[in-house]
Each structure stands twice: as structure tokens, then as C-alpha cells.
Design brief:
Layout: E1 3-7, E2 14-15, H1 18-26, H2 40-44, H3 50-57, E3 67-68, H4 72-79, E4 83-89, H5 101-114, E5 126-127, E6 138-141, E7 153-157, H6 167-172, E8 175-178, H7 185-193
Parallel strand pairs: 1-4, 1-6, 4-5, 6-7, 7-8
Antiparallel strand pairs: 2-3
């Protein structure tokens, strides 16, 4: 029987396009590396314009043009030969709960269009904010708070908002880090889970 991986989506498989919507709204040129806090809108959007911004994004699909992280799809395909993979992701916008349904739809459609059924069947998708109730052998996430203490192998995927977490803190929680750069994060994941098997980005072919 294959071991089970709980795999986060946002900031692990892809950047959703949220920053691009912020830029469109504000006429700016932000990238994710301009931020160090998880909630980008808290930093970028002026307080007096937040309602206007949430109305703006409520009509948009932020997963229409995702920025895939280097090697993500190639790595997932290889990992699926040895592991059962369960995308496990929250779909709520805590600042606009009433319009969160669009996130569920956009995220499902993105996954289903990018990842073949034989790699990850749609029945494996888990959309929940209660990740603590999910079980598996391995969990990969960009938020320390999402990594469950009852899961044996916990991997923190490097992202813009978690760079400052110390190795001492992670070690105290039994978490290992997938490197120090999200550009090479999937290479690090494969070193951990595939005994160093090299994963090449499709752009290298």
C-alpha cells in the first residue's frame, strides 16, 4: 500500500494570481517577494479601499492563470508512482466569506485541468480549513500552523512569508524544511521523498 501525502496547493503547487489581481486593482507591480506577511491584502491594500478590493476580486477567478512553481507538476507525477497524493487546501477568504465559493470552483478547475486523473484523481481533492482532522503519512505545507503533529513526516515548503522561521523552531515541532528558496523547493521535496532522484522542470527539455 502506498503512503499518503497531504499536499497543500497555494504557495506549494502554485501562486494563484492573487498578487496580479492586487496589481490590477492598485496599478502596481508587486511580486510575492515584496511581502513577508501571509495576508498580502493586509499590507498592500489601503484600509479605506479594502471593501472595494474584495468586491473587485469577488468577480474574478484568481486561479485562471496560476504561476506554477518550478518542477511542481513534474515532481507530482513522479511522486504519484510511489505515493497516493491528496491535495489538501483551504478555499475560504476570511475577509469575504460570502464569496468564497468562487475559490472552491477555481481551485478545483485548476487542479483538474493541470493534473491528469491517473496522477491525482479528483476524488482525492480535500478542500477544508480544518486540516488538523486530516490524516496521512506525509504533509507538505507552507504554513507551520497547518502541519499536523500526528503526521510522521512534516515538510515546510519555503514561501515568501515563512523565510524567517528558524531551524530551531522547526526542529522543536518535528518539521523539516524543503530548502531556502521556493524556486528549488520541489527539488528539495524530491530529495527527501525520492532518495535524491533528479526532477527536471519541463522548461529544461
Amino acid at each position: 500500500m502506498k503512503k499518503k501525502i497531504l499536499l497543500d496547493i497555494d504557495e506549494v503547487i502554485c501562486f494563484s494570481g492573487y498578487v496580479e489581481l492586487v496589481n490590477e486593482f492598485l496599478h502596481t507591480n508587486y511580486t510575492v517577494d515584496d511581502f513577508s506577511e501571509y495576508y498580502i491584502s493586509d499590507i498592500a491594500i489601503p484600509k479605506e479601499r479594502k471593501k472595494e478590493f474584495y468586491d473587485f476580486i469577488s468577480k474574478r477567478n484568481q486561479y485562471e492563470n496560476p504561476q506554477l512553481l518550478p518542477g511542481a507538476l513534474e515532481s507530482i507525477k513522479k511522486l504519484s508512482k510511489y505515493y497516493d497524493i491528496y491535495p489538501c487546501s483551504d478555499c475560504r477568504n476570511p475577509f469575504d466569506m460570502a464569496n468564497s465559493g468562487r475559490i472552491y470552483k477555481g481551485k478545483f478547475e485548476m487542479l483538474h485541468s493541470l493534473i491528469p486523473e491517473e496522477v491525482i484523481p479528483a476524488r482525492n481533492y480535500i478542500f477544508t480549513g480544518a486540516k488538523e482532522i486530516c490524516t496521512g503519512d506525509i504533509q507538505i505545507d507552507d504554513l507551520v500552523s497547518n502541519l499536523n503533529s500526528h503526521i510522521g513526516l512534516k515538510i515546510l515548503f519555503l514561501s515568501y512569508h515563512n523565510k524567517k522561521i528558524s531551524n530551531i523552531d522547526l526542529a522543536s515541532r518535528g518539521i523539516i524544511r524543503a530548502g531556502y528558496d521556493y524556486q528549488t523547493g520541489w527539488q528539495e521535496v524530491c530529495k527527501i521523498l525520492l532518495n535524491g532522484e533528479d526532477i527536471k522542470d519541463s522548461s529544461d527539455k
